[in-house]
Design goal:
Elements (H helix, E strand, L loop, with lengths): L2 E5 L2 E4 L4 E8 L7 E7 L6 E6 L6 E3 L7 E6 L4 E6 L8 E8 L15 E2 L3 E6 L1
Parallel strand pairs: 2-11
Antiparallel strand pairs: 1-3, 3-8, 4-5, 4-9, 5-6, 7-8, 9-10, 9-11
């Protein structure tokens, strides 16, 4: 069993930055790839970024490429999403999720991820 807790959301101005954290617990969490997804009001949940269990492989959605950076610190069982150059369209609830079966080829499909956090709200004002 894996539990995930997101934090770090809040209000930012356009062009600003936020860093989200995803704290994982459970004996096997370090063996999971972790992804970040987001869901804006009235829209479907979408993939943002993912990182392999080893931290050596990352993947980004086109909307995140060049602005967001995903990383992990296994010493504290935490995955981070550094978000820079924020835009109003980044406003959404951000979720982290764990994928047990991913190797170095990271997946963007929601159904690939077995465990989910409760989400953290990010609001970007123009």
């Amino acid at each position: 069993q894996v539990q995930l807790v997101e934090s770090g959301g809040g209000l930012a101005q356009a062009g600003g930055s936020l860093r989200l954290s995803c704290a994982g617990s459970g004996r096997t969490y370090r063996a999971y790839a972790t992804g970040w997804f987001r869901q804006a009001p009235g829209k479907e949940r979408e993939f943002v970024a993912a990182i392999s269990w080893s931290g050596t492989s990352t993947r980004y959605a086109d909307s995140a490429e060049g602005r967001f950076t995903i990383s992990r610190n296994d010493a504290v069982n935490t995955v981070y999403l550094q978000m820079n150059s924020l835009k109003p369209e980044d406003t959404a609830i951000y979720y982290c999720a764990a994928d047990r079966l991913a190797g170095q080829v990271l997946r963007s499909e929601i159904e690939a991820y077995e465990y989910w956090g409760q989400g953290t709200q990010v609001t970007v004002a123009s």
